UniProtKB/TrEMBL annotation:
<dbReference type="InterPro" id="IPR008949">
    <property type="entry name" value="Isoprenoid_synthase_dom_sf"/>
</dbReference>
<keyword id="KW-0460">Magnesium</keyword>
<dbReference type="GO" id="GO:0046872">
    <property type="term" value="F:metal ion binding"/>
</dbReference>
<keyword id="KW-0808">Transferase</keyword>
<dbReference type="GO" id="GO:0008299">
    <property type="term" value="P:isoprenoid biosynthetic process"/>
</dbReference>
<dbReference type="InterPro" id="IPR033749">
    <property type="entry name" value="Polyprenyl_synt_CS"/>
</dbReference>
<comment type="similarity">
    <text>Belongs to the FPP/GGPP synthase family.</text>
</comment>
<dbReference type="GO" id="GO:0004659">
    <property type="term" value="F:prenyltransferase activity"/>
</dbReference>
<protein>
    <submittedName>
        <fullName>Unannotated protein</fullName>
    </submittedName>
</protein>
<dbReference type="InterPro" id="IPR000092">
    <property type="entry name" value="Polyprenyl_synt"/>
</dbReference>
<keyword id="KW-0479">Metal-binding</keyword>
<dbReference type="Pfam" id="PF00348">
    <property type="entry name" value="polyprenyl_synt"/>
</dbReference>
Length: 355
């Protein structure tokens, strides 16, 4: 591993998070006040969205966008990069809320998922219809609302930046489709699993926010290739770390039950490697992946196999190698020292994070 304590949040991340959160609070408070005047019942979904956006999340996407913007010659006080950072967090809320519906997840960030919380509300006496459909329907609408708010924050960006914004949204949906398809099929090869990781999370989390930071200043052509040489491997490392956390993570830190990815049958490189190397007896156990009712003992048995096959060790090695590749690529980015140091610190954080 390259570096620092897993739970340590680098200053390069913290310095971006605070102003982005303040902007989010401003936008969502204005929207809540506006729509409560139309109908008081609209307070609840907007309150849920506000809590979801403001009480969780690492703010990584705004941070990568911010430091690329600074490196390309921008200033921290520029409203364009602040609005873009807030837009990223709203888009991420959209993606997570919808993802939880598709996966049937019960918890997110230590709390009931949005669709589950509204399903519980529907249990009130005399309400009509199916609680599950009500909860999922409301969650989809809240996610859609977050996306619309995100798009509106981006309307002041130039055509180049808005083009990147639209492309990253397409890539996110393409990756999510491949993920849902792979989960339904029950298995994918390693190449497909890595493609899913790249499009569902890697590009959207790191590479495209970097591109967008440069594009806000009209300098994307100048920095596109060097930023991709840093952002592409680091984006893959980010998702591989997510896969480890989804299988072995501490639920008190991740906010999700241990082994949720195993219950959902997520088509990850970790599982692809384990399946390739497993003995016939181990393959029988691995076939239980994707069973929602897996208990703690079942999860532990699967974790042991992932260790014994060397799959976890290989993924950890890949994360370190990809991070080192990204950090090495910083030598070819013509930024000042401060943004380069920030991107180096963020890479180390991505490699070692525990949530």
């Amino acid at each position: 591993m390259t570096g620092s304590a897993p739970s340590e949040v680098p200053p390069a991340l913290a310095v971006v998070a605070a102003p982005v959160e303040a902007r989010l609070r401003e936008v969502l408070a204005a929207e809540s006040a506006r729509w409560i005047e139309v109908d008081p019942d609209l307070a609840q979904p907007l309150d849920v969205l506000t809590r979801f956006v403001l009480t969780g999340g690492k703010r990584l996407r705004p941070a990568f966008c911010h430091w690329a913007f600074i490196g390309a010659g921008g200033t921290a006080e520029d409203r364009a990069v602040l609005d873009t950072g807030a837009a990223f967090e709203l888009l991420h809320a959209f993606a997570l809320i919808h993802d939880d519906v598709m996966d049937g997840s019960a918890r997110r960030r230590g709390e009931p998922t949005v669709h589950m919380s509204f399903e519980e509300i529907h249990d009130a006496p005399e309400w009509q219809g199916e609680a599950r459909r009500f909860g999922e329907g409301i969650a989809i609408l809240i996610g859609d609302l977050a996306e619309v708010f995100a798009d509106r924050l981006m309307t002041g960006a130039g055509s180049e930046a808005f083009g990147i914004w639209n492309e990253l949204k397409i890539e996110l949906n393409i990756g999510q489709y491949l993920d849902v398809l792979g989960t339904a099929r029950g298995s994918v090869n390693l190449e497909t699993a890595r493609r899913i990781a790249q499009y569902k999370s890697g590009k959207y989390t790191i590479e495209r926010p970097l591109h967008l930071g440069a594009a806000l200043l009209g300098r994307l052509d100048e920095f596109l290739i060097p930023l991709s040489r840093y952002g592409s491997p680091l984006g893959e490392a980010f998702q591989l770390r997510d896969d480890i956390l989804g299988t072995f993570g501490d639920s008190s830190l991740t906010g999700k039950p241990v082994g949720d990815d195993l219950r959902e049958g997520k088509p990850t490189p970790l599982l692809s490697i384990a399946t390739q190397r497993a003995t016939p007896q181990q393959r029988v156990v691995l076939r239980s992946i994707g069973t929602p009712s897996l208990g703690p003992d079942d999860i532990n048995e699967l974790q042991v196999i992932l260790e014994e096959t060397g799959a976890r060790a290989e993924i950890e090695s890949d994360i370190s190698s990809l991070t080192a590749q990204a950090i090495s690529a910083l030598d070819d980015i013509a930024f000042d020292v401060e943004p380069l140091d920030a991107l180096r610190d963020l890479a180390i954080y991505v490699e070692n994070r525990d949530r």
